[in-house]
Design goal:
single chain; alpha/beta; Rossmann fold; 7-stranded mixed β-sheet; 7-stranded parallel β-sheet; 14 strands; globular
Length: 590
């Protein structure tokens, strides 16, 4: 403990010396040297500045603004040039970028041979809506619209302050080859091609960011010891769940609790065992070390969303095993944001390969997730929607929020503030919408940023420097606040590039909020033929499209009507009791 304190003091000493004391001393030394050289040798200056203090005041008044100007020029012009040149001189970077270009060119040629055209613009299967006409109107309005100085200021600031995370995988996802995935005839071919190319470039796909990055307690080995029960247990089968982190107001956490409650209702003994639980979830869970093996007929349900030391021990336990796969986000999105999460992402992907031979049944929430597991080698896979308790939405809106924002246009995003959700692109859409279309508008970003502090502060800094108005970040919203924001919303927008299911889109369907979303990963499977899926990220045209939907009641009502039909289909499949009964029956056959 003392050694650590001494090291911290030594670090503080070095930082204080390097950044403050050395600067002050060098500045004073510069003043004294200039005074000695200029005033003592030039009589004219000596008459103008009869003493040293007048020289010091003149020096500070002229020198500091000059150095600030030079520093600003260096940051704006020279520093980006130096960074680009440094990257170009790095043989590893050049090799990777060349490989990316070669792969994109090759696969685009394959697309042409298969006679697959790029899907551009907007995609919506709603009958009765001329989406081509909507697209044309949005483009015409974007061309004719006068750009305000505030909007141009935001665009310039976005270029000056690039997002900290440099995601190479985006280059592949935004190219035409990625659109092949949307064509069911070529799903297997496209995914195998993409993942082989990604593996060649060492683009490991990793886990979603964990809600808590620090585990309580210490474990020296990969395998954790469980306490084996030696007494008596109640008769009947037990179905227990394991999840690394249990958090409130979280899709995976809500599903875990709903499954536990339904299993108990069906007569099974069921508990939730965790590595780490949020304080609010202490009463809902038990430590993994409290698990007692009572029968080889027990069923273990493991929720896979990140790397966990639980995996090896779960695989060693007797009984049937089910994995609920909540999907895993590529680790490149977190590069430069949180190194611990990057490492966890990579190792989580490796654990999927371990689990494929030890799992009797895998449950996924979209066809996209199923394709991922099939690619890895999983055999027995069931697709079931995320269980959503719609009763929690039957709440009254908060009157103070309703009164404050009821008379304005409100755009909404709900979800965690993480790089792959592309919050900066939502800001770019809103900058155009607020400054060029409707100044009486708000953007609500409802979600937490735990573990993503660097990304969140970059977003806040961008908003501050660009002077972007009416952007509201809402953290830790309770159910009543969430219901209020959905009731206030005129449109739900998402530019996310990776989703396992996306519950907020189902919530938007429930509240009758039109959805505009970037067409990636599981979004086509969640939306079906509802909402508007955007295949090209032209932010000005997307903003114009939002304006059309907000102000054209006919178009808006048709979109909402189609979303209600999609919601009914999801709710019919959202029978947790039937899903659990089917899965348990299937796993006991193994």
């Amino acid at each position: 403990m003392r050694i650590a304190s001494v090291r911290r003091w030594w670090l503080d000493l070095k930082q204080g010396h390097n950044f403050y004391i050395a600067f002050v001393l060098s500045l004073l030394n510069f003043i004294i040297i200039s005074y000695s050289l200029a005033l003592e040798r030039l009589p004219l200056l000596n008459q103008i500045f009869p003493n040293m203090w007048m020289w010091v005041a003149f020096f500070i008044v002229t020198y500091i603004p000059l150095t600030i100007t030079l520093g600003h020029f260096h940051r704006q012009e020279q520093l980006p040039t130096e960074q680009n040149e440094s990257a170009l001189q790095n043989p590893v970077t050049m090799f990777q970028m060349k490989r990316i270009d070669d792969i994109a060119e090759t696969l685009e040629k394959i697309c042409q041979r298969l006679d697959i055209k790029d899907v551009i613009g907007l995609e919506m299967l709603n009958k009765g809506i001329d989406i081509a006409k909507l697209n044309s109107i949005a483009r015409q309005r974007a061309k004719a619209r006068t750009r305000t100085q505030l909007y141009e200021r935001f665009r310039n600031k976005l270029l000056q302050y690039p997002v900290p995370s440099q995601t190479k995988l985006n280059y592949i996802q935004r190219s035409s080859l990625y659109n092949v995935i949307r064509n069911s005839r070529y799903v297997t071919l496209a995914r195998s091609l993409i993942y082989k190319c990604v593996s060649l470039l060492s683009f490991d796909r990793g886990s979603e960011s964990m809600e808590f990055t620090h585990f309580s307690g210490t474990q020296d080995s990969e395998s954790m010891e469980f306490t084996h029960f030696s007494g008596t247990q109640k008769a009947g089968h037990a179905v227990h769940q394991f999840i690394p982190v249990l958090s409130p107001r979280d899709a995976a956490g809500n599903e875990v609790i709903a499954i536990r409650d339904m299993l108990r209702k069906l007569g099974y003994r069921s508990d939730i065992f965790v590595e780490v639980a949020h304080p609010e979830m202490y009463q809902e869970s038990k430590k993994f070390t409290d698990y007692a093996v009572s029968s080889p007929n027990d069923v273990i349900i493991y929720h896979m969303a990140s790397y966990s030391k639980l995996v090896n021990s779960i695989l060693a336990l007797p009984g049937r095993k089910i994995m609920v796969y909540h999907n895993i986000t590529p680790h490149e999105y977190f590069t430069g944001i949180n190194d611990e999460i990057v490492r966890s992402c990579r190792r989580g992907r490796e654990q999927l390969h371990l689990l494929k031979n030890g799992i009797d049944l895998a449950i996924v929430h979209s066809e996209y997730s199923k394709m991922e597991l099939v690619e890895i080698g999983f055999k027995n896979i069931v697709v079931a929607p995320v269980y959503i308790n719609f009763d929690k939405y039957k709440r009254e809106s908060k009157k103070n929020l309703t009164a404050r924002y009821a008379n304005s246009t409100n755009l909404l995003y709900v979800g965690r503030i993480v790089p792959h959700k592309k919050i900066e692109e939502l800001l770019q859409i809103f900058a155009y919408y607020n400054n060029c279309i409707d100044s009486n508008s708000n953007l609500f970003i409802v979600g937490n940023y735990l573990g993503m502090e660097r990304y969140y502060m970059w977003l806040k800094n961008l908003i501050l420097k660009a002077k972007l108005r009416n952007v509201q970040f809402v953290h830790n919203a309770d159910d009543s606040e969430l219901v209020t924001y959905y009731n206030l919303a005129d449109a739900y927008i998402s530019m996310s590039e990776h989703e396992g299911f996306c519950i907020p889109m189902v919530e938007s369907m429930y509240f009758g909020v039109p959805i505009i979303a970037y067409d990636s990963t599981s979004i086509p499977y969640t939306l079906g033929d509802a909402g508007i899926r955007v295949n090209e990220k032209n932010f000005e045209e997307i903003a114009e499209l939002i304006g059309l939907i907000v102000y054209d009641d006919n178009v808006r009502n048709k979109i909402i009507e189609k979303q209600k039909e999609r919601l009914d289909a999801i709710r019919q499949d959202n029978t947790l009791e039937r899903t659990l009964a089917t899965c348990l029956q299937e796993v006991w056959k193994c």
